[in-house]
Design brief:
It is built from twelve helices and twelve strands. Helix 3 (141-154) packs across helix 6. Helices cover 48% and strands 19% of the residues. It has five domains: 2-117, Trigger factor ribosome-binding domain (Alpha-Beta Plaits, 2-Layer Sandwich), CATH 3.30.70.1050; 125-156 and 253-304, no CATH class; 157-249, Roll (Chitinase A, domain 3), CATH 3.10.50; 307-358, no CATH class; 369-429, no CATH class. With 429 residues, it is an alpha+beta fold. The protein has helices at 28-45, 58-88, 141-154, 201-207, 255-260, 267-301, 308-319, 325-330, 335-368, 375-388, 393-403, 406-425; strands at residues 2-5, 8-16, 19-26, 98-104, 110-117, 131-132, 157-160, 171-178, 188-193, 215-221, 235-249, 427-428.
């Protein structure tokens, strides 16, 4: 398909549903004008002995700066033509355009190809007629007790373990020295809670054989899945000194404890709040499953692909690393670290693709059905958050805006409206 846009000739191809390839021809008159502008700029900035600034004759310019003029002309022509061609076709690239097959000779047209990815067209021909099953909202006494135990643990205080040996749940301070060829190896101090996986099992077992102030040399084996590949599966001798140990003292679960939290009259009021919170969380999980079931059926009935560049960027955000392999390599990761990073990205790839498809479906329906969050709805949600936390609405608004969470709140409201619409179009049993 050939399309004229001003004086450009553009042919659009679709190698895939989410990519476009433009073959662009720039007429020599435009190339000539660009070249003249480049020469004028170089002449104005160049300083050569015997010539006043801005007064270099064209012949001297060609002799001294010929290759520079040609390269700068080509770069400008391609850059300007690419932007104009994309705009004229109503395309919205989501990746940097790849330029190839460049043809250029002085006093002739410039021809080149540009390929890039575009956001997929999500048609969503069918979004109704599906059935989702809502899980029952059930909470038991064990769930409430587990929350109360967690609150007690958060309010607990550490007390020195003056006798005996530490066990799971105790906090220890240890000095560990690697035994080996280096006689001047310095001990390193660590502080952690036994049983939380912060140390390898053999080290935790060794520590639990010591009383505070005791020390010893132990042979430990690093697990096969140890993050440092050089250490994985290896045995090593470590000198371990238990410098100190603490046990956590938990408060009694009574009215006094409830009042110490600052907003409850007695233990019954605390239990009531915990039950409300546990029930609300169970309802959120139930709602999430309903939404997931509907979305799965919509995606199955309206298949589309997510552009690889979107997936790579999302994976970069999920892992905290740039999506470009070249960028990751440049940042001095070891080969082992790069391998682990790539393995992590591959494990997360299906989740990234699913989340992007979810986002595209929500965005498409929000636009198609007019379900975007309104300013009044955002204001109401901010006031609700303020009321729940005993703050002024203006204060909450400023905090959300400053932290960049206001946009996330708007997206959350929009998503809620989209799924309310979808539930009205489908059957939830």
């Amino acid at each position: 398909m050939a399309v004229a846009s001003t004086d450009l000739q553009i042919t659009v191809q679709e190698p895939a549903s989410t990519s476009r390839r433009l073959s662009i021809t720039v007429p020599r008159d435009r190339v000539r004008r660009t070249r003249s502008a480049v020469m004028a700029q170089i002449a104005n900035n160049a300083r050569l002995p015997g010539f006043r600034k801005g007064k270099l004759p064209p012949r001297i310019l060609e002799q001294r700066f010929g290759p520079t003029i040609e390269q700068e002309t080509l770069d400008r022509v391609i850059q300007q033509a690419y932007r104009e061609a994309v705009e004229s076709q109503g395309l919205r690239p989501i990746s940097q355009g790849s330029i190839d097959n460049v043809e250029y000779e002085p006093e002739s047209d410039v021809r080149f190809d540009a390929e890039f990815e575009v956001q997929p067209e999500v048609e969503l021909a069918r979004v109704s007629g599906f059935t989702a099953t809502r899980p029952a909202v059930e909470i038991g006494p064990d769930e409430i007790e587990a929350v109360l135990d967690r609150v007690r643990d958060e309010q607990g205080s550490w007390e020195l373990l003056e006798s005996g040996r530490p066990g799971v749940g105790d906090q220890v301070t240890v000095e560990i020295t690697q035994q080996g060829d280096d006689p001047e190896s310095e001990p390193r101090t660590y502080r952690f809670v036994i049983g939380e996986g912060q140390a390898i099992p053999d080290v935790e077992q060794a520590i639990q054989s010591l009383a505070p102030g005791e020390e010893g040399v132990f042979t430990v084996r690093f697990p096969e899945d140890f993050p440092d590949a050089a250490q994985a599966g290896r045995e090593q001798q470590l000198h371990i000194r238990l410098a100190g140990a603490e046990s956590k003292r938990l408060p009694e679960l009574d009215d006094e404890f409830a009042r110490s939290l600052g907003e409850f009259e007695d233990l019954a009021a605390l239990r009531s709040r915990v039950e409300q919170d546990v029930r609300a969380e169970s309802e959120r999980r139930s709602e999430a499953q309903v939404r997931g079931q509907i979305l799965e059926q919509i995606l199955d009935g309206n298949r589309f692909e997510v552009p690889p560049s979107m997936v790579e960027r999302y994976l970069g955000a999920m892992t905290g690393h740039a999506d470009s392999e070249e960028h990751r390599t440049r940042h001095e990761h070891s080969p082992e670290e790069l391998q682990r990073l790539e393995q992590m990205r591959e494990v997360l790839r299906p989740q990234a693709e699913y989340q992007l498809k979810r986002m595209l479906v929500v965005e498409r329906l929000a636009d198609r059905e007019g379900l975007r969050a309104t300013q009044d709805e955002i204001d109401a949600r901010v006031e609700e958050i303020a009321r729940r936390n005993n703050h002024e609405a203006s204060q909450v608004w400023l905090q959300l805006e400053k932290s960049g969470q206001l946009q996330a709140l708007e997206a959350e409201i929009t998503e809620d409206k989209v799924f309310e619409y979808l539930k009205s179009q489908n059957t939830v049993v």
